[in-house]
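2024-03-11 09:14:02 INFO queue: dequeued item Spore coat protein CotH, len=105
2024-03-11 09:14:02 INFO validating residues
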Amino acid sequence: DGFVHNYALYHNDETNLFEVIPWDYDATWGRDVQGRPLNHEYIRIQGYNTLSARLLDIPVFRKQYRSILEEILEEQFTVSFMMPKVEGLCESIRPFLLQDPYMKE
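2024-03-11 09:14:37 INFO prediction written
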């Protein structure tokens, strides 16, 4: 999953750039579809996707990818950055959660 194959490429005619459209990110927060923690090696940047492999084989692209990933991990994927967003989302769905007849106690 993850970078290996869970995306499609779209050519934006206005910008003349390709954009990534992610999909099927059931493991986004490190859990499988049953909510169990995943092994950290499960979400990898290597695999059998020819496009990903070819792009990351180009040193300048691999360096840029790593730099962007490190910046995201250091600045945005932190408790202090994410907590207000998660709490805001939680508050926005709370009324609906309370009405969910299938929610476990």
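2024-03-11 09:14:37 INFO annotate: The chain has a mean pLDDT of 82.
2024-03-11 09:14:38 INFO item closed
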